[in-house]
Amino acid sequence: MNRPATDIAPGGQLPEPLAGLGDAVEVQVRPAAGGRGTEIAVRLRDGSRLPVASAARRVTGRDPEQAIRAALRESKQLIETGEVLHPDYPPTTEPTPMNKPLRMATQQGRREGRL
Hints:
The chain has helices at about 5-10, 15-20, 50-60, 65-80, 100-110, and strands at about 25-30, 40-45. The protein is of the alpha+beta class. A two-stranded antiparallel sheet has the order 1-2. The radius of gyration is 17 Å and the shape is elongated. The mean pLDDT is about 80.
């Protein structure tokens, strides 16, 4: 993020989405390379990942890495815009078979969107 660390974690307080992950994760806030703002790194404390178990958790929506990605994305939005941006809600259209793929992509994008 193109902001100093004091803007990202004032007084050592992380943005709410990251703080909400609690002690399950380790968060590092450090200057980015080349003086280009600040970098936030987040990882699970136990560091263990089993590919098969991870795939099953991902399908059911209980993958801790999904929660980390979502928290990073929401924190970035809070820092840059002051709010977490969501697709239009309530939806402006009625659910139909024709727009179901779009609804599914929007729902999945909230969990798996890119930063």
